[in-house]
Amino acid sequence: MGIRSFFNKMIARDNYDEVMEYLAVEETQHAPRFKFDEAPEQLRELISVAETDRGEERSKWLNDYAKNSWSVPDGEAEVLFAEEHLNAFRNLNQYLRSANAKMKQDGYFVCGFDTAQKHKAQIFSKYPKFIAEIIYFFDFIWHRVFPKLRLTRRFYYFCTKKVRKVLPRPEVLGRMYYCGFDVVSEQYIHDRYCVICQKKRQPDTEPHNYGVLIRLRRIGKNGKMFNVFKFRTMYAYSEYLQTYIYENNALDVGGKFNDDYRVTEWGRFLRKTWLDELPMFINVLKRQMKLVGVRPLSQQYFNLYTEDMQQLRIKTKPGMLPPFYVDMPETLDEIQESERRYIEAYLKHPLRTDWKYFWGIFGNILFKGKRSK
Fold first, then answer.
1. CB neighbours of 160 closer than 8 A, spacing ≥ 6?
2. Cα(35)–Cα(185) distance, rounded to whole angstroms?
3. Global pTM?
4. pLDDT tens digits for 26-78?
5. Domain check: are 189 and 240 in the same one?
6. What is the chain's Cα-based Rg?
7. What are phi and psi of 76, to 5 degrees?
């Protein structure tokens, strides 16, 4: 049962504990867990105290630990503990960059935040379902849309005396990778989502945008990288989680990631109807892609292919309509063989091959209902 269907069954009040128990399992089912026997002593002590029952003594210890961990010179912190939950920071990326600068290479950064699903649970646990749906709609517009639009961002922060951002889990994890960390452990501690990550590199300097039209770095002809235009279907910063998702989720039938929770509900609709790929016509007009051809792949996904297929792939431009919809392969090996057949035929007879594949793809999608997940 997915999170959406679970919330649809919530019709009574006062079931917050039940929802949190559900989320503690649902949101962490593909999350990595840390091997604490290999961790520094101070990290083990920090997590041990954090897991104790709430109280004044626990709060004081954690606050003192956070203050002391941030007092060391830049580049010397082995274990750094966030001074506040991440929802409280107006410029979260700036705070994460500061944490990166404060730490040693491979040092541990420990932080917590309230997920967007928890925020939704709080609303649905207070009101009957019908009223909760209305409140949640306007809450979503106010806390999730207004802070990210240039026209409304200043107004939102002007009206919000105390910053209390609503942060989807994929966005927070993506921001961590964007700011130079790798996530090594996730879990709920009480009702707050706790993340342990390691400093692995310097923060990314490429600007990130929240717009509905996004640019994704993909491998094109002759191995040149280019920006593919698409409508956004994932949470912000999700593109930085490619390796993380692969390591924790693996591949599903059809070569897509299994249970990819980076995709929003609206994004699933766009993908199902192929509307998310309409902006790729820009790439076709710029002659970076063609109408029929293999999918444009990210570097991480491209690396999963065999070396000979990598070399074969970069001999042609990627396309909007992939041969996948002719053969409907299920495994990565089958996908590679499907693409091999197409590319080898295309290199011999380009126009004839694309014409044949176009009508095969068109017929399978329109009349047989074939589609990827």
1. none
2. 9
3. 0.82
4. 788 777 776 666 788 889 899 999 999 999 999 999 999 999 999 999 999 99
5. no
6. 23
7. -120, -5
